[in-house]
Amino acid sequence: MGVLRPFWSPTFLPFGKGAAFLRKTFAKSPEDLAVTQIKGVKLLLWANVLLAMKIILVGVFQDQLQVPSLAAAQDAFLAQQSQSLAQAWAAVILSTATYSLQIAFWGHLFIGIARLAGFRLPRSTWRPLGSKTLMEYFNRFHYYFKELLVDFFFVPTFFKMFRGHPRLRLFFATFMAAGVGNAIWHFLRDIDLIVTMGLGGVLASFESYAFYCLVLATGLGLSQVRMNMGFKPSLSLAGRLRSFLFVWSFVVCLHAFSDGSRSHTLGERLAFVGSLFGVS
Amino acid sequence: MNSDGKLKLRKFLKEALEKHGDHGELDDSESLFVSGRLDSFSMMQLVMQLEESFGLDFSTVDFDVSLIDSLDEIEAFVDANASS
């Protein structure tokens, strides 16, 4: 997964996919360059709007209305401190919202700067609230991460495995990308933790994210197969609302397992999510 | 690839573009995937379509997206690799 990282992409995630792809996307004329740069400026402005929204959300809900952070809500649940169901739900939803805004801001920042440099790159996050299926959400939320998983895990699996069984082929390739690939990438990203936590500690604290990958991959795989079978989400207002509620309920519930913190075990998180549905 | 095959392919790609909210024109030489007009999952749908319609076997090909990045390139690829 090692690729040459351009100046706007200091993370492990290659925004712009790598040198060969970048070369093909560079503006081909002065007019094209101007349009690309204007799009870059617009995207950077939008990134700042999203950042402001995140700051306002935290200021209003966390600071003024005392909605706890996700970790604090989980701690309170585990310590059996008094916490209303509404507070616990608010903590999960707020954490999902701020995380989503952060990912979108972060992606727009990198792509906006790349566009200023003349690369006509697609956005990393594109209208995720409008996703009508889980697969569409995954595609729209974090494009370059998805592309990385597709290139390294989906495509090789898809070309080699279960070629005579189209639906199994699609499910398995999606599972390998969103599940196995996702888990491997995140494990390798934080591999330096082995120095401080030891291999056992790192593996144990990774079980929650591994569970997240398993559920996400299963959901995405089924979503892919369903679309392949001809499912078309309704475009009516009620249909869109149903799709929105389904996709984002899934995302919110799963977020409790993928918030990036290693401070709670899988069992503790399962118990916390269960408590949100009245299961003790 | 005969003209009927190309017509079907064009229809398939137009539908894929429309699903992505892209209602623009589709020229034969225009980039589909590298330009970002279509994503990699659309590419897989295209691969399945090509396998089904032309009996192609992608597992034997040293695959790169540039092989099927435009209608012209898809046509050339099918002509060079189709088994029927």
TrEMBL record, chain B:
Residues 3-82 form the Carrier domain. It holds the Pfam family PP-binding. InterPro entries: ACP-like_sf, PP-bd_ACP. This is Phosphopantetheine attachment site. It comes from Accumulibacter regalis.
